[in-house]
Amino acid sequence: MLELVQGCVNVEKTLNSWYELNKTNNYGAFVSFVGTIREEDDIQGLSFDIYEPILNSWFESWQQKARQKDAIIYMIHSKGDVFLHESSYVSAVFSPKRRVALELIDEFVEDFKANAPIWKYDLKGKKRVYAKDRSTPMDGAGLLA
Amino acid sequence: MVKVEFLGPIEKEMMEVDVTNLEQLKEILQKQDQIKPWLQNSSIAINDTLISDITQPLKDGDKVSILPPVCGG
What we know:
The complex is a heterodimer of chains A (145) and B (73). Chain A has helices spanning 11-22, 52-68, 98-115; strands spanning 2-6, 29-36, 45-50, 72-83, 87-95, 118-124, 127-130. Chain A has 145 residues and is of the alpha+beta class. Chain A is globular, with a radius of gyration of 16 Å. The mean pLDDT of chain A is 97. The A-B interface holds A 35, 48-49, 51, 53-54, 57, 77, 88-89, 109, 112-121, 130-132, 134-145 and B 7-9, 22, 25-26, 29-30, 39-45, 48-52, 54, 65-73.
């Protein structure tokens, strides 16, 4: 279950809706991760570009991994501008047992940072500056170098 | 013709090139000063599937995407 929204994520509404959808589905564990924009380096916020076709296939491969463990993954991410103290990313895992959910959210969020086709920019003044130093080459990078 | 699109922070419009494999595309992109620095850290997709084999053939109508380093969240 992947959703993209323009601007910030409504965290309370998102987590509540996921909980409501699954509270009677016999999952013993619900683990969530919320990413929030911190005040640092004089930024006014962050901005995001997303390449949706590959994000969708990346997410579907994770959903298949989760299904093999009787778990389910949810994710919502912002497009465009998100300002200080707002949230741009929420993900969650529901699973029958806690260990699966805890391990899956860890692996999923780490791979999200490394391989989800999302580009981050700092909002500074009226500029949108690519966060080059905080970005990671995806798996297989350098094929045409 | 093969379409080549540059994603995220690479500020370049989509281009069309007459090539039949990735090696030929590499030669063309290596000659472009604006693109060359990105190639070291960029991943490649053909028709929205990430590729790890440079011998992959290309056919008329294929779309190649250049994906620079990412940072979601």
